[in-house]
Specification:
The structure is a homodimer. By secondary structure, chain A is of the alpha+beta class. Chain A has a single domain, classed as Winged helix-like DNA-binding domain superfamily/Winged helix DNA-binding domain (Arc Repressor Mutant, subunit A, Orthogonal Bundle), CATH 1.10.10.10. Chain A contains 6 helices and 4 strands. Chain A has a 3-stranded antiparallel sheet. In chain A, strand 2 and strand 3 form a beta hairpin. The longest helix of chain A is centred in the N-terminal third of the chain and has 15 residues. Chain A is globular and about 55 Å long. Chain B binds a DNA duplex through helix 3 and helix 4.
Chain lengths: ~120, ~120
Amino acid sequence: MSHQYTRETAAEGVENALKLLEGRWKLVILFHLFGGHVLRFSDLERAIPGISQKMLIQQLRQMEKDGIVRRIVHHQVPPKVEYCLTDWGQALCPALDALLTWAAQREGLDGGNQNVPSQDATI
Amino acid sequence: MSHQYTRETAAEGVENALKLLEGRWKLVILFHLFGGHVLRFSDLERAIPGISQKMLIQQLRQMEKDGIVRRIVHHQVPPKVEYCLTDWGQALCPALDALLTWAAQREGLDGGNQNVPSQDATI
DNA sequence: CTGCATCCGCATGGATACTG
DNA sequence: CAGTATCCATGCGGATGCAG
């Protein structure tokens, strides 16, 4: 399982991965679905204040197409559609946790140069 | 170092982290800087075909402001400016690797339902 | 209830030309 | 060499209205 990537393919790989997560609301949706939660369209709508239906369905559809989210249609009136994560979608957890860890490291390391944005090499 | 996040703060944290990585060229630049490489403006320009000066300087400036990239100015004629990663920027490596790992898992798990995008719960 | 269509404003990104 | 300034195209996201 050793990763042997060239600088370019690695950049492409991460860019592709990031592209799947891009979108104003995908992360929020994802976190509402983590842990095996199964939510209806209206549940998500209510759980995410400020999101429009268009955005909600758009982001859900994209993630469904990308294999991150599973869509379950119950043919009944009134309609009922539920959303949950695929196995692959659940597998995102560790990666996002790593990102979280990195973000948390901001205060702590970085060489103590938060207030020295530009170094000046003038002699 | 246990992460104890609520659903909301975690989403915010990751979103903030992702926001720092957003931008058409940031990842590409990052990967060219990983490994302690110190590159001049023109080096990056040459190394990344298709990028415009505007985009290059814009993305670099944002990452500098965010503490990911360090900018070193040599006051001389002709001008010479070098860019490298901060310690925190270098620390991004594991997180991006996790993302890479996740992306690689696409083929392999996900319950074998790549061809069944929408499940149908009709009785 | 769930989801699609349309229109609109704004931010992002790209091309080009110019400056210290 | 290392930017800055300007103009322009595109796309994203928001609001509203309609349909199955």
